[in-house]
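Writing this down once: the sequence line spells out the residues, with the fold written below as integer tokens. This is how one looks:
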Amino acid sequence: MSVVARDCRAPETRRLAVSRRALVLAGGAVLGARALPFAAKAQEATPAGGETRVIPTTMGDVEIVGTPERVVALEWNLVEYLLALGVQPAAIADVEGYETWVTTPVELGPDVADVGLRWEPSLESIAAAEPDLILGTTDRDEAIYGQLGAIAPTLLLPPYPTEEGEDPIADINETISTIAEALNRQAEAEAVIARMEQAIADGAAAIEAAGRAGEPFILTQAFTDENVPTLRLFTNQSLFGHVVSQLGLENAWAGEPDPWGFNTVTVEALVSAPAETNFFYVVQGDDDIFANQLQDDPIWSSLPFVQAGRLYPLGGDTWTFGGQLSVERLVDKVVERLAPEA
């Protein structure tokens, strides 16, 4: 998956008007012990009038008049941002895939239309959804930007994670704030960000109270690739690696990350991990390389943290490329593993 660097060009400003309808909002605000107050408050949002807002993007400035109400999202993390803001999209790319791989407290509505695959969306289906706003990413959708813009105002946002040296949390906060500005939902975005930041702070306090602060960790998403057990090891340049570090743990994997913030390796790469490493892993139930292929592997079995039982599954439904809702979910899972009393 390639990433297109931020573009410094400044094409001609796009003047695109947006029609006005009632916002489509996410349902179900109370979820278990933790509620989503920002989703509930979405019902109280007052759509703006016909004012014009200029949204700067890597493709140039986009002018939006009024409040978009029907939004099409062509990448799954963009869908998560919309749901976090209390907005159900009119259509997304690959509904089935989203519902299979992405788990957040706010569910996708039953009436959301499908516009094809993320890497090959159907322009005809997008147009049929009658969007007021289209959200896409620069790595996948730049080639069809002109065609998308002919359908509706289009914001192409740099994909997560960020360029080297940037703060992954600041990056997702900037993205949701940009979307919120386009939708006149700035207050909701501030609430989402504050909630996530509080979850991280609370999680760090729980880890410290449990006496686990400063311990090393490795975070991996593991799977079989051409019959070979394969691991994505997340560096601190990735969102999830960075978040776990913010909980007070030390990332034991310091490889040179690819543009998405991880390294793809085999089990041999783990031999230098500290003995006290906390090994967090995401695997699918039907492709659990640790319970299957590596169960009797001599290298895996010899690793000190394996022998010590410092293995912590995060569940196959943990989405590692999401936004603020996914971050909260990760924090909860890590704290449950290391500080269950919290």
